[in-house]
Amino acid sequence: MDNPKDSEAFYNSGNSKANLGKYKEAIKDYDKAIELNPQYSEAFYNRGVSKANLGKYEEAIKDFNKAIELNPTNSEAFYNRGVSKANLGKYEEAIKDYDKAIELNPKDSDAFYNRGHSKANLGEYEEAIKDYDK
C-alpha cells in the first residue's frame, strides 16, 4: 500500500506549480494525489481551479462537484463552480452556487460581487445592485 504522505507530497507539489502558473504540470500532480487518495477533496478542488485557469470550465466543474461531494462545507468549491458556470453563460446555475457559498461564508465579498454580475447578465439589475452594495 502506498504511504498516505505520498499523496500529500504530490498535492503540495501541485500547489507549488499552480502558484507558479504551471497549471498543466500541477494537474498531473493532483491526478497522482487523487490516484493515491481518491477521497482527497482538496486535490479535486485545486485541480478544478487549475483547469478553470486553463479555461477548461466543464472539466473544472466535474472536479468541483467531486470536491463538494467529499466536503459539502467547502464554500470555495461552490464559489469556483459558480465562476466556471458563469464563464459558460450558465448564470442561473452560477447564482445557486454563489447562494450556497454565501450561506457557508456570509463574508465572501467575491461571491456577492460575482452573484451580482450574474444577475446583471440576466437583466436583474435591482437585485444585482443589492449584491454589489453588499
What does this structure look like?
With 134 residues, this protein is mainly α. Helices cover 79% and strands 0% of the residues. The N and C termini lie far apart (50 Å).
What does the secondary structure layout of this molecule look like, with pairings?
Blueprint: H1 4-19, H2 23-36, H3 41-53, H4 57-70, H5 75-87, H6 91-104, H7 109-121, H8 125-133
Helix pairs in contact: 1-2, 1-3, 2-3, 3-4, 4-5, 5-6, 5-7, 6-7, 7-8
Number of E-state strands: 0
- Helix count equals 8
The pLDDT mean sits at 96
Low-confidence stretches: none
Which class do the helix and strand fractions yield? mainly alpha
How do the SSEs run, as a string of H and E?
HHHHHHHH
Strand share of the residues? under 5%
* Biggest beta sheet summary: none
Summarize the structure.
The protein is built from eight helices and no strands. The protein is mainly α.
Essential attributes:
134 residues; mainly alpha
